[in-house]
Amino acid sequence: MNDLRKDPITSRWVIIATDRLLRPQEFEKPKPKPATGSTCPLCPGNESMTPPEIWRWKNPDGTWSVRVIPNKFPVLHVEGDLQRRGEGIFDHMSGIGAHEVIVDSPAHDIEIGKMDGEQTFRLLTAYQIRLSDLKKDERLRYGLIFKNYGLEAGASLGHPHSQLIAMPIIPKYVKEELFNCHEYYNLKERCLFCDIINEEIEKTKRIISETEYHVALTPYASRFPFEVWILPKKHQACFTCTEDKELRSLGILVHHVLDALSRTLSYPPYNYVIHTRPFRLSTRHVETTLDYDYHWHIEIIPRLTKIAGFEWGTGFYINPTPPEDAAKALREAMV
User: Fold this and answer.
1) DSSP H/E element including 287
2) Catalytic site residue 161?
3) Contact, 206 vs 226, CB < 8 A?
């Protein structure tokens, strides 16, 4: 079984994925080309090529629009106990969690920017349903929805899909957001994200699009060229709290933003992640203002630059495109 190990210096957890064991010579092998047509396990008609289905959006004619399956090569496994233990100064636990694949659409060659808003709504609904279900597992503390589009972004299959990894710890990046939001709330009794949204709407120069329920913007300190955040305008700590009417509107906005990125940047590889409220905190943090100080959001990151030695060594990012310029270009590309 895979192992979760904690770095005592940075408090970062690492998954030692022995299930994916690679020997030195294997790292030099060329990456496989994405499967297509009859060889693609995610295409309709090839359902027998995947692990047993967890959930599907079933159409009246018996076909499916979105499908959820276990990852064939999971980094965390549902079965077993956490077995938290020490090894001298080090902490580790069993690699318990869940790793699922969400098939975005039956179509092999269509990504979200080219889907219609209704299909994107169905996909977002699948995210909600799976997060809500996994939240019931008392062993798990956080669920991350993410998407890798394109080989450079980490996609190993050409058929558009997203992934969900639920884990027994809260990731370091999310912990940093939680801590800063909590500190801000303690100081001002307001949500930091809500204040940022209000400021950006007032200034307008980094706003890409605004709907009744959501806003898309390029963050003030964008780490990457054309980085985009999508946030609910009203305060919401958890993505699963989003109502159907809001989710339909969000589906249309996500579709338009990704379409604008594709047309502006000629279909770049990208990642997106959904940061939402943790399922639960540790028993040491029972008293919390989490529902009031945290704000869920989507982060979209086109893969246009490389992270090199300076970034790895410092945690700084070098962004050659001012977010104001990126927002202007994307506004002009919005339909």
Assistant:
1) none
2) yes
3) no
CA 148 to chain CA centroid, nearest Å: 9
Which one, of 39, 54, 200, 20, lies nearest residue 130 by Cα? Answer: 54
Q: 317 vs 21, which has greater pLDDT?
A: 317
pTM equals 0.91
Which pLDDT does position 194 carry in this prediction? 98
Instruction: Quote the tokens at residue 191.
Output: 């949500």
For 22, the token pair is 């690679």
CB 206: neighbour CB atoms within 10 A? 22
CATH class of this structure's domain 3-333: alpha beta
For residues 193 and 183, give the distance between their C-alpha atoms in angstroms, rounded to a whole number.
12
Active-site option among 99, 159, 161, 295? 161
Say if residue 189's pLDDT is above 90.
yes
> How is residue 19 written in tokens?
């299930």
For the chain, which residues make up each domain, given as ranges?
Answer: 3-333
pLDDT of residue 28: 55
- Confidence (pLDDT) at 196: 98
Structure confidence by residue, pLDDT tens digits, 156-166: 888 999 999 99
pLDDT at 164 (0 to 100)? 98
Centre a 10 Å sphere on the Cβ of residue 28 and count the other Cβ atoms it contains.
6
Query: What's at 63, amino acid-wise?
Result: T
- What is the b/e burial string over 144-182, where b = at least 16 CB atoms within 10 angstroms of the residue's CB? bbebbbbeebebebbbbbbbbbbbbbbbeebeebbeebb
Closest CA to 290 of 252, 231, 244, 237: 237
Residue 111: the pLDDT is 84
